[in-house]
Specification:
By secondary structure, the chain is of the alpha/beta class. It is about 30% helix and about 20% strand. The chain folds into two domains: about 280 residues, LarA, N-terminal domain (Rossmann fold, 3-Layer(aba) Sandwich), CATH 3.40.50.11440; about 55 residues, 2-Layer Sandwich (Alpha-Beta Plaits). Pfam families: DUF362 (PF04015), Fer4_7 (PF12838).
Length: about 375
């Protein structure tokens, strides 16, 4: 079997050649313009950045992809789904405000922004996952599934639960509705904070299982009746209902892979990742730390698994930035101070920057499960584009 092709260009420029011009050349060399976009609705999945975070991708990069799609006669829109946690993107109105504040508007990108799972994160399509080990029916933002073509533009960075966030996380977790995100983060039923609950009863109106009752002006969940659909999370006005966050990171990584399969299966897709401002944590945080490695470049491929693998390999070849969380973690793994107990003698000790930064998670689990699901290949050929 042939290796998947991953195309790469560095962040180095010269007079008359901008980074945006290099990105345009990269995606054309990688074959994005070979997709039949004519009159096709095209979802361009991006992360608009949590307010306060400055590591997210600039909207200028998204415009390069949008311009190519429109040049080919397509109908692009930028999209993301609402977040499970409380923040600036938990409903469509706040989410749009955050996107506009961070520069993602029709004027800067050339297309509209659509929040895929609707006003409260409950507008979802139920997609059967063939061969899913943990997910039998993924809950995906409806606008994502209504699109004819799917394009992902990812900021490749570290992540505290999955090791790193790249193409697969942008697709699998990013396209899950609020209930879909709960399914990935939780083993089953949600939890209700009695302190936050105001007893409004909105959760009872959307529960098809009659699993929530209001008693003494507080909502209570019958876990035996609850099927874990998560729709109550979307309608709660005080964010009193949420996920239990009670599964292992390995299961989270595998669920994320199965959600990515649901998004991509059966339609054209293409993927771009920028390995710049490689913060140790997700862009969902309202702040960003010192990058753990220097800016590396831009990658593109039809295979999101090979793309993530190539980006991870590229990061792991870099020398950590002084003062970063990674550099501090590596210092602890010095032979004289190694905190993992191997005394610095274990082969590869400290060589995986993501495991070093977040030792409680193993990113390889996700990519290996993706390969098993048939999403893509772990083997790739890296092709440089000048």
């Amino acid at each position: 079997m042939d290796k998947s092709k991953v195309y790469f260009t560095s962040m180095k420029t010269e007079p008359g050649i901008s980074l945006l011009m290099k990105l345009d050349k990269l995606i054309r060399k990688a074959g994005m313009d070979s997709i039949d976009f004519k009159e096709k609705y095209t979802a361009v999945k991006v992360h608009f950045g949590e307010p306060g975070n400055l590591a997210y991708l600039r909207p200028n990069y998204a415009k390069v992809l949008v311009d190519l799609i429109k040049e080919q006669g397509g109908k692009p829109f930028l999209t993301d789904c609402n977040t499970l946690y409380v923040g600036g993107r938990k409903n469509a109105l706040d989410h749009l405000d955050s996107a506009y504040v961070n520069g993602f508007s029709p004027f800067s990108t050339g297309c509209h922004v659509i929040i895929a799972d609707g006003l409260k994160g409950t507008d979802e399509a139920l997609i059967p996952v063939k061969g899913g080990e943990f997910v039998k029916e993924a809950k995906i933002g409806r606008a994502v599934m209504d699109a004819d073509i799917f394009i992902s533009l990812s900021h490749f960075k570290g992540h505290e639960s999955t090791g790193f966030g790249g193409a697969i996380k942008n697709i699998g977790m990013g396209c899950g509705s609020r209930a879909g995100k709960m399914e990935q983060h939780s083993a089953g039923t949600p939890m209700i904070s009695q302190k936050k609950c105001i007893g409004c009863g909105q959760c009872t109106t959307v529960c098809a299982q009659d699993a929530i009752k209001i008693e003494a002006k507080k909502a209570y969940l019958d876990e035996e009746k609850c099927v874990g659909c998560g729709r109550c999370i979307g309608v709660c006005p005080t964010d009193a209902i949420g996920a239990k966050w009670d599964i292992s990171n390995d299961i989270l990584n595998k669920k994320m892979a199965e959600y990515a399969w649901a998004v991509l299966n059966g339609r054209p897709h293409f993927h771009v990742s920028l390995v710049v401002d490689v913060s140790p944590n997700c862009d969902c945080r309202p702040e960003n730390d010192i990058p753990i490695v220097p800016d590396i470049g831009m990658f593109a491929s039809f295979d999101p698994v090979a793309l993530d693998m190539a980006c991870a390999d590229a990061v792991n070849k870099q020398i950590p930035i002084s003062g970063s969380l990674l550099e501090e973690a590596r210092h602890k793994h010095h032979p004289d101070t190694c905190s993992c107990g191997c005394g610095g003698e274990t082969e590869g000790c400290g060589s995986d920057h993501f495991k070093m930064t977040h030792p409680d998670t193993d990113w390889t689990v996700c990519l290996e499960h993706c390969a098993k699901m048939g999403i893509g290949s772990l083997d790739y050929e890296l092709i440089s584009v000048k």
